[in-house]
Amino acid sequence: MAAVTYELIKTCKQSGARLGRVHTPHGTFETPIFMPVGTLATVKTMSPEDLYDMNAQIILSNTYHLWLRPGHDIVKEAGGLHKFMNWDRPILTDSGGFQVFSLSDLRKIEEEGVHFRNHLSGEKLFLSPEGAMDIQNALGSDIMMAFDECPPYPAEYSYMKDSVERTSRWAERCIEAHKRPEDQGLFGIVQGGEYEELRKQSAKDLVSMDFPGYAIGGLSVGEPKDVMNRVLEFTTPWLPDNKPRYLMGVGSPDSLIDGAIRGIDMFDCVLPTRIARNGTCMTSEGRLVVRNAKFARDFRPLDENCDCHVCQNYSRAYIRHLIKCEETFGFRLTTYHNLYFLLNLMEQVRQAIRDDRLLDFREEFFEQYGFNKPNAKNF
């Protein structure tokens, strides 16, 4: 029995979106799902109890950052990431590839792996597919990601073709180096930029390796949303129906809905937690920057349509005061609300799939959120 399996429950007759379940060694989660990001073995300002309370079914943690601090050997000694951070639900770890390519100015890609500098200390480091597997095996996540090359956007076709071919070779090396397939599922990552032929090649290469799940990488890196949607439309048909599909690094409300419509099951992004810390909130009526002066005497909740404990108990005026004073409690409140908002949105998406009305739901949500207005403010 594979460590990670996917169960398709229903396909929305109106949109083609998928309702499913992913089974892992630490429990089952429903899809489509949003995964809060706990970069350093914590979702910033949130406790595990907060995450249970908002019904976060799976969280993501970061291989690169945990390798540097505290070190994967310490996490392993603690009994693995679940015990280290006191979280008993599923955890997904990324491969570290994205951070190597995005955080380091000085990097050199070769067939063996990537030479780069530690973004904290400047120390020279090297990460290979085998190294990424060793670190993730030590962390003990339920779902781990293959080490891939993350090309810049935009990139020339010839560069992207070489990159896709290297990512496929690295994926094979990841499978070879993965020491715990019985209790950790390894996902492959489809690359190829905006080039249909290369996305097809990447998907076919990876599907032939029979991973238990597939991610689509290299999106949400600065391309327009219509480009991302088009890439999803021509990529997902090449992925098997009986495996989960994960769109990496996407977390704006419109993109979660549009991704689900295009057959995506899993999403993650630092967006809701990052913007929360500068006082930007997601609400059912659009973006609300609670630190703005106009909320100084606004005693309404962040979102009058939200039933999270923040909106039940605290006003915009109070939260603005905390954020302006840089009080940690203010960041906790906005973070909790934003994560709750996205998790609740995904529950509404799942219900709309059950009811065969996801396209109708999209129209209603976009109308209320204000996406249909000219110059709509997005994230």
Mean pLDDT: 97
Number of helices: 15
Proportion of residues in extended strands: 15-25%
CATH 4th-level superfamily of the largest domain: Queuine tRNA-ribosyltransferase-like
InterPro entries: ArchSynthase1/Queuine_TRR, TGT, TGT-like_sf, tRNA_ribo_trans-like
Family: Belongs to the queuine tRNA-ribosyltransferase family.
Catalytic activity: 7-aminomethyl-7-carbaguanine + guanosine(34) in tRNA = 7-aminomethyl-7-carbaguanosine(34) in tRNA + guanine
EC number: 2.4.2.29
Describe the fold and architecture.
This protein is α/β, with parallel strands linked by helices and 379 residues long. It folds into two domains: 3-267, TIM Barrel (Alpha-Beta Barrel), CATH 3.20.20.105; 280-367, no CATH class. Helices cover 41% and strands 18% of the residues. The chain contains 15 helices and 17 strands. The chain has a nine-stranded parallel β-sheet. A three-stranded antiparallel β-sheet has the order 1-2-3. Strands 8-9-10 form a three-stranded antiparallel β-sheet. The radius of gyration is 20 Å and the shape is globular. The termini are far apart. Substrate binds at residues 94-98, 148, 191, 218. It holds the Pfam family TGT. Residues 249-255, 273-277 are annotated as: RNA binding.
List keywords for this structure.
globular, zinc, 3-stranded antiparallel beta sheet, TIM Barrel, 15 helices, metal-binding, single chain, 2 domains, TGT, alpha/beta
